Prior knowledge:
Layout: E1 20-26, E2 31-34, E3 44-48, E4 51-52, E5 59-61, E6 68-74, E7 79-85, H1 99-105, E8 107-108, E9 111-114, E10 119-122, E11 142-150, E12 154-156, E13 163-171, E14 179-191, E15 197-204, E16 207-208, E17 213-216, E18 225-236, E19 244-251, E20 257-259, E21 272-279
Antiparallel strand pairs: 1-7, 2-6, 3-4, 3-7, 5-6, 8-9, 9-10, 11-21, 12-20, 13-19, 14-18, 14-20, 14-21, 15-16, 15-17, 15-19
Amino acid sequence: MAGYIGANTSSVTNNQNAAERRKKFTFTANTTALTGLSFLPNKIHIFHNGIRLVRNTDYTEASDGQSVTLTNAAQAGDEIVAVTFDQNPATGGGSSYTDADVDAHLLTAGVTLDATNDKLSIGTGATLDVSAGALVTPAGHVIQVVQATFDTKTDINSSGSYSNTHITTNITPSSTSNKVLVLINTVASVDAGTTTFRRLKVGRNGTVVSTEKILRSSYADTSGSDVEDLTIHYLDSPSSTSSLTYSLMADANGVGMAVGGRMSNTTANQISSITLMEIAQ
């Protein structure tokens, strides 16, 4: 028997579950057959007492990847280490995973990858974590929605400048290329019997960004002020990933105006809302 001159083989285990498999053979009699292997063609290394053997010179591989035949027989007491790569990693057989194999193996914590139908399913209680990368969504997709509602009103008496009302909320876009759709629903009331215009706009961080919504009194109601239902839609391009404050801003042009209720009634406030949607671009 030749002396073993390689690394200490006590650390080499017959690990048959790893992608790279190492199997140690010891012999009590001379033999040329190494069996119980599983490897891809040309994906095996043979070490005889620490010396790497040469393929097709010192050994030949079986076509099924299950065994190796030594040219020169190993003797009793010799050690041979075979480093192989699994020939059939897929349960369905073959040298690569099938769709059924992927479906069967990549199932964890309620997350199912259905390779057959090209679908990823997230089960109840499971979390899709993309914090290390980015989740790419199609253009026009709603990424997040923020909404706030109010049961109060704001009285405005400014002239020539816009003031924030109570209808406001914040959103933090996930990308500078995305847009923010602002939806505002409220009522506004003005002094009856005057033709003075009142103006409302959408504001971002205290600065108006939308075109004007014009109000002026036309018909007096029984409470002594005119009331108009307001629905304002504005698609903003903030080019920011910072927290943004959107609000309804108003300029009463020097004459009385109330947003969210009637000027002459302090209790008949209406429900107002502002909804912000981040839209993928």
